[in-house]
Amino acid sequence: MSEQAPSPPARPTGRRKVELDPRLAAYKGVWVFIEHERGAAHQVSFELLGEGRKLADALGVELAGVVMGAPGEATRRFCAQAFHYGADLCYLVEDPILAEYRNEPYTRGLTDLVNVFQPEILLLGATTLGRDLAGSVATTLQTGLTADCTELNIDPENRSLAATRPTFGGSLLCTIQTLNYRPQMATVRPRVMSLPEPDTGRSGRIVEHPLGLVETDIVTKVLEFIPDQNRDQAQLAYADIIVSGGRGLKRPENFQLIWDLAKVLGAEVGASRPVTQAGWVSADRQVGQTGKTVRPKLYIAAGISGAIQHRVGMEASDVIIAINEDPAAPIFDFATYGIVGNAMQILPALTEAFRQHLA
Ligand code: FAD
């Protein structure tokens, strides 16, 4: 009698319906951490309040801003701004220790707030500060964090956060849910979500909470803030017009044509990854999955093929003009206007035409 090989275990098919742990039901509300530096709130916080509002409405819960900082007029102003952009209430942690961002006291303040008031969702900007804080808060709370999300929704089946982000080098999107832990944390890069219209007539309530730390509890000290004078201060994320160059420009000296056109248009300069990696421009000018996400009114791409990793960083631009000598270049699939030709001839012609037109 011949023996048959055991059949392999059946692969799961389709979506698995998952019931939430009833203990998690105590967690309610959507929170947005309001990031600020040198007296100004970061716009990404307001973009997140716009998304947070939609999530809170879908769940039928309140939207809260979280403001932390030294006591003073600024923190109240950030709360007022949070209300204008959709928050119903603000949790406010004020202490002189929080004057400058340091990971330890901010992590302590935010994790304490979460443990006391138990939000179900906590959103932060994927900025340098936000990434630092989100990682340590998620680890301290032992909960799930989905970084660099491009879309946030509520799963109607189980009311959990469905956080979508690129994966496999940007070639796929995956949606991640944190089913067994709370809060569900996510970070979103600046400009990925649109900025809602502020309503200056909106107001809300402020819930104050103590920090409960003394300076000697904290091992890191901020001695001085020295702005980096040498850093190329690219303001790509919030630019209205961007002129970007890619490998099709062939030589670093040809990249000057991008600077020339940008200057005439009052635009910022962007680049694809091969260009920043070759050192033609600084890395903070890279647009794309591992660079900046931009959504200007006008994006001019010269000598850029339109690879998915570049596209995800700029496809939300209002108008995209592509200059490429290959009529089959992928960028023509999503550009608003396409110019087929040699960028080294077209860029100077455009610069001259705009110079005359705008004179
Ligand atoms: P190429 O793909 O080489 O395209 C050059 C284009 O120029 C071609 O379409 C060609 O037809 C055209 N051309 C040539 N000569 C001329 C001419 N004389 N005039 C006009 N057109 C001309 N890339 C990014 O940009 N940003 C990112 O954030 C990013 N992140 C990445 C992350 C990962 C994990 C990976 C794997 C890749 C990433 N990349 C990123 C790289 C990305 O996959 C592409 O390789 C890159 O975007 C290509 O850059 P490019 O279009 O300048 O160059």
TrEMBL record:
Cofactor: FAD
Sequence intervals crossing the membrane: none
GO biological process: fatty acid beta-oxidation using acyl-CoA dehydrogenase
UniProt-recorded Gene Ontology molecular function terms: electron transfer activity; flavin adenine dinucleotide binding
Superkingdom assignment: Bacteria
Domain Electron transfer flavoprotein alpha/beta-subunit N-terminal: 30-222
Record InterPro entries: DHS-like_NAD/FAD-binding_dom (IPR029035), ETF_a/b_N (IPR014730), ETF_a/FixB (IPR001308), ETF_alpha_N (IPR033947), ETF_asu_C (IPR014731), ETF_asu_C_CS (IPR018206), Rossmann-like_a/b/a_fold (IPR014729)
Binding note for cofactor: Binds 1 FAD per dimer.
Keyword Electron transport in record: yes
PANTHER family: ELECTRON TRANSFER FLAVOPROTEIN ALPHA, ELECTRON TRANSFER FLAVOPROTEIN SUBUNIT ALPHA, MITOCHONDRIAL
Protein family per UniProt: Belongs to the ETF alpha-subunit/FixB family.
Protein name: Electron transfer flavoprotein subunit alpha
Organism: Immundisolibacter cernigliae
Lineage: Bacteria, Pseudomonadati, Pseudomonadota, Gammaproteobacteria, Immundisolibacterales
